[in-house]
Amino acid sequence: FVPAQFTQECRSDTYPPPSSSEVEWFDVSLDEAPIIRWRHVVARRQSQIRDLLLQFKNFIRQLTGSSVYFNLVARSLTLIAPTVPQPYQDEMVGISTVTGIPLGEILLYNIFYEATNL
Amino acid sequence: CTSVLAEDSKGVLYHARNLDFGLFFGWDKAKKTWLVTEYLRPTIVNIRFKKSGQTVFMSTHFAGYVGILTALKPGRFSLTVNSRNSLDGSSTLGIIEWILGKRDAVWMGFLTRRVMETADSYAQAKQMLTGTKMLAPAYFILGGNSTMQGCIITRSRNAAIDVWERSAAANHTWYLLQTNYDHWKPPFVLDDRRTPGNKCMMAKGQASMGFKEIFNVLSSIPVLNKLTTYTALMRVDTGEYHSYRQTCKDPCPIW
Lengths: 118, 255
Known about the structure:
- The complex is a heterodimer of chains A (118) and B (255).
- Chain A has helices spanning 39-64, 68-80, 88-99, 103-110, 112-117, and one strand at 25-29.
- With 118 residues, chain A is mainly α.
- In chain A, helix 2 crosses helix 4 (103-110).
- The longest helix of chain A is centred in the middle third of the chain and has 26 residues, at 39-64.
- Chain A is extended.
- With 255 residues, chain B is of the alpha+beta class.
- Chain B has helices at 35-40, 91-99, 108-118, 122-131, 194-204, 211-218; strands at 2-7, 13-20, 27-28, 33-34, 44-51, 54-62, 70-73, 77-83, 138-143, 151-155, 160-165, 175-178, 228-235, 240-245.
- Classes of the chains: A mainly alpha (118), B alpha+beta (255).
- Chains A and B meet through strand 1, helix 1, helix 3, helix 4 and helix 5 of A and helix 1, strand 5, strand 6, helix 2 and helix 3 of B.
- Strand 1 (25-29) of chain A pairs parallel with strand 5 of chain B, so a sheet runs across the interface.
């Protein structure tokens, strides 16, 4: 089913959406040290972030037939992590620490836009 | 992605977007869904960035991602990012240059974050988004706080190759709609969300424009599709910001 096959009319009955679809709010203080300012957010979503990255890792493994490529990229990114500008570098280190996800994978997640464009 | 800037007949500007992501990153045959899209949806969070106890700006994130894809600075401006693929000036060269030590270009998410933190006005945000060298091309959809403000910036890695101002938009100056294709070219024939999106915006009309009708447009197929993770609704003058996880039930296009 690609869009060209669809001729659905404009909807007029979708608002307000169910409250269950509302996105949860968090405060992030820019006065806090970058390394700790995201901890309460990622602590609440660490299993979801881990599942997402695992899914992506599985996808690359199925595509290439091996985990070697993903691990190689993640390890290489760990090496260039110190070149990421501050405060984003420290924020990612903090996220990696709280979630236990390797820094290279957190960096890959954060440059996903450029990586997928590539 | 689909982003919309629309002004009602009273001069109130609304900014909204669908964030679509996950194309070709694995397909679940049983559930008929994109795997990465399904795994992204539970990570969505809204963030109030605060300084000295005051809200500086609000944004919607995939938890763990520190850059900005959708954000509002109350009373100042709003910003959404749509991805742009371009054979000339893709991110390949930019990433290689970065690894080799040439670091005069900026990662997209870090640029938008800097804009939200430091720009104090629509004009300043526009200047930063048009004039900063980037690692990959993108579309920046920027809304302001007063009538007729709002533009779509088409970026190559080096510069803005087009700035589509609302005042210059032909036929329908009251809104601009951007998907993932240059607005002066026809969209890819198998991924035309622009035509149905425009059709729905024109059918709703300026007089009835507001969160309700923009949400209805963004919930109409194929603007809403199996890649859609969330819809965000923003109003700069009042600082209102809402975002909702979106799912598209069958029959639904795969993109």
